[in-house]
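Before relying on records like the one below, remember that each one covers exactly one chain. Contacts with other chains, cofactors or solvent are not represented anywhere in the record.
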Amino acid sequence: MTTAARTARALLGAFAVLTAVHLGALLAEATTVVHLTKPALMPVLAGYVLAAGAPRLLAVALLLGCGGDTLLQTGDDGLFLVGMGSFAAGHACYLVLFARRGAFPGGLRRSGPLAAGYAAAWLGFVALLWPGLAADMRLPVAAYSLLLATTACAALRFGPRAALGGLLFLLSDALLATGLAHWQQPPAAQFWVMLTYTAAQYALADGVRRTYAARERTGGAGTTRAYGEVRSTAV
């Protein structure tokens, strides 16, 4: 095993441990531990993808997620939109990575009914949220959720892991959005938000990493392949 592979494995293990500590702290209502561990999650995951040979832009996407995590946990309403903007910039990075591997426009067309389902779900969900959102939050939430849905749709062409990551990201942010709209929240809502969010970021990032690695091994020819083709060459 190479030094880079050992480093990647150690960082992935550190991410798993840190995530478990953070989620446990949420359940135990250990606020100090929650605030200390949350900003550390995405930098460790970014270190993993870099050590594993992923494109630097993927690490940038994760670090922008860290910016959003940090700003949102301050509880400052004035920083909330800035944090949302940081997450949006992270999704823009994902979309650039997808575009470089042929996700647009052909990839979305080939995703067919699933992409149409995401579009319909986005429209219906925004319509349900709209009355409960503050006036100054309606357009930002609609725009951000459209960007997130686009990421999830594009991820469908990047193998099962990336597709799962896109779906989990939608679920995580949907739960956050219902809180903004003052819907009844489930018990331990923040635990479920962070469980789906950390799983989403890992699955999405690792799915992208595997796809890029597979393309490098096959010489980078052609456009993005379907699930079975990517999975057959990824490790």
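The mean pLDDT is 87.
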